[in-house]
Amino acid sequence: ASKLSTLMFQITSVKIKCHICLCMQVLTVSSSVPLRVSAALSTAEESRVKLESLLEKERVLSNTLQQHLQGAQVWADGIGQVLGQLDTLERHMKYLQCLARIEELSDSIQQYLMTNSMWDAVGAIDRMASLDMGLRESGCSHLQAFLRETLRFWHKILKDKLASDFEEVLTQFHWPFISPPTQTLSPPANVQEFNSQLELLVSQLLSLQTSDDLISEKKEIPSRPGQSQTPPLSLPIQIMLLPLSKRFRYHFTGNRQTNNLSKPEWYLTQVLIWMGNSSNFMDEKIQPVLDRAGAKVNARVELCRGLLTLAQEKLAQDAPRLLYDDALFCHLVDEVLQFEKELRGTHSYPRTYPGVLHILLEETVFQKWLSVERKSDGRHLTEIRLLERYRALPCPRAQLSFLALQKELVDDFRIRLTQVMKEESRQPLSPRYCAILNAANYISTVLSDWGDNVFFLQLQQAAVSVGEEILGPLGATETGRLASLEGSLFEALLALLERLRGDMLGRLLDAVMRDVKEKAQPYCKDRWISLPSQNDQATMSLSSSACPMMLCLRDHLLQLQQMLCLPLFQTFWQGLAERLDNFIYEDLILYNHFNEGGVAQLQYDMTRNLFPLFGHYCKRPENFFKHVKEACIILTLKVGPALLLCDMLKQSEEDEGILNHQQPSPESALNELGVYKLAPSDVQILLNLRSAWLKQ
What we know:
This protein is mainly α. The protein has 25 helices and no strands. It comes from Cyprinus carpio (Common carp). One of its GO terms (cellular component) is Dsl1/NZR complex. Belongs to the RINT1 family.
């Protein structure tokens, strides 16, 4: 109010000063203005006087208000102190009420325990736990500590009592199952009574879960990246694990002979055995009780989780101690991978829960793992089996690290193959050369299949986001192709392997064709223009000059069919057929002139001998010898049709550029004869090769 009064006073003063200045200016020129201006000046003077009067009243009112506020502040300060004292008293009252509530609950629990009213005691402890959680946000540290200690005291007494009774009932059911349960283990005589006790105790223990978690300060166990959180183990399962945990620590800690760093399979196998031995009991006895109690947990999975903590703790202790022994470390990794496989497969352990592999992803252990895999890549089937060793890893970054290693190893293997291939290239038909070609083809096929594999497609998406940190710079184009799934993670490797495979296959075809061409020289130089007519021969037989070529082809095909894998051999014989087709067409047919007997002999050699050689590998081998097949069609035409075809081709050549709808095109005429590959100009050349008898 004081500040407001001061501000109003300042504003009013400014306005009055402005009016006074205006009046003085007007007075200076009053002598030269009319009477009405004088009247206006008089009115202005009256206004000035009134304003000064109002200003004085405002000053008085402001001073009065200021004095009033100063007096009220004293009362306000006093009221504030009283309210503060009331708030303190209220907090003290609540504090005492809370203490009284704690004492009341404590007395109730004691009374319930003395009268063996277990359900009432469980309810009282649950209410005390709720009170504990309600005080978390308060600053009463001493009260919180007192309440927590009181809760811990009564919780331990009640838990020990229930746990003792629960263990006695479990003993009646022969728990724990150290060895596989057999039919000789007869159920207790009063099994119905024990079933009722079992259900009652499990339900009561489940009701203690909240207080148990508070006392133990259990937080949800952080799981692997991208997976759901795993809650604490339920209290009944914790108690069931106690005898198994004691046995595990007895055998696999300290100076026991069973605690052997070189034998991780002993404790890993023991955990799996206990899981298997207990599965039926958990499914048939414990799970129905949990369901009726409203606990949304899987009894068998809960037991597996508990047993896994034993293996995880042991593995976390042993793994760093093996970092300087490659052999033992490799053995540990092999056993852990096998354990994880059986855990997820045989025991159907959910993949949303962590197993033991994440222990191997600790930085120093993981780097050691990568190092030994790089050193011992020869143990794997050309680095392909490495996939099975990292497919189950819970972290995409770790998987990408292994992928980078695998690509590096595969590329090293490709380089070794290339080096050995160059040494063997002088003998491309040797088994060693073919083995190298098979290996290159196998890796190429596997990498190509992996490009469409769901696992690698998911890894491809991970590579787009975090891959550059592990795989190196990808580039904008490659990143875009990977993100759109157009490319694959193995494109560069596949291109190199395809080049190696193509080069080796080409060398192999060159070697076979050199041998075939050498054996075919006498056949190509036969006197095709002077062979006897088919009518002059009793029976047709293979040309004697063609026998070496046919035998050479047969031997190479049989030999390479044994040495090459099926896909490679398919590619090989088709490539060989294509080259052979061009060779016979260009070096034999176009090189010679044919009489009727020569044409008949050529057709017989091709259709009854050459084509059937390839008939073992396909149903219509003649389709792979289109030049030769169509050349035989042209050469074996009767004289009349051959002359008509020759005239039509010549006429078509002369009328080239002139549109004639009535005259059929040369291509359509050739198609009617079954000629599709050869061009009209090629057919003219072939017709000229038989010109000697066309003139007859």
